[in-house]
Amino acid sequence: MVELAPSILSADFARLGAQAQAAIAGGATVLHLDVMDGHFVPNITIGPPVVTSLRKAVNVPLDCHLMIERPDELIPAFAEAGADWISVHQEVCVHLDRTLRLIASHGCKPGVVINPATPVHFLDEVLPLVHHVLVMSVNPGFGGQTFIPSSLKKIETLSRLRESRRLDFRIEVDGGIHQDTVADVVRAGAEILVTGSAIFEHGNPRESARQLLRSALEATG
User: At 168, which CATH number?
Assistant: First the structure.
């Protein structure tokens, strides 16, 4: 099942609730929240209060992607704020197994993220623990970047690993997903498509979401 997860990073924060609802009306079934601390990535975005506000405005899973140096310290706060899924970067977690179990202990679905330079096999030991693996198809920190083509091989590798090991994690992809890349991403095995600028930067989130989701679903056929 292919799902669209609009990234609010590209939304108009003055109209965040309305824009999120418009994207959902266009077929989005998850909202992706990019949390950046200015240390792990060169940008600062949102914290738990925004999650709390969105939780009141929408009734879909909130997918919190923690691009922060010490995620263990803030996982409880994001869970309490209303996060449904929480993902952390392999590159920053010294004790990744522990961190993923911490997320689950707070009632959230744990996910693990890998940057473009991180090999898939670095996740071998934690794949049975996760709800989803998020493949970064751009270098994290800013929206509107160009898709890195080598990401397709990583998606394909994850899909094969999942089948061979009889696991059930989902494959999520974030970065550079537009009309000209979405079909290749889906055919490679991605199921959750994170995209910000393609949804929110053309003035009509509902229609943009509808068109992108239609292209994604056509690629599955």
Answer: 3.20.20.70
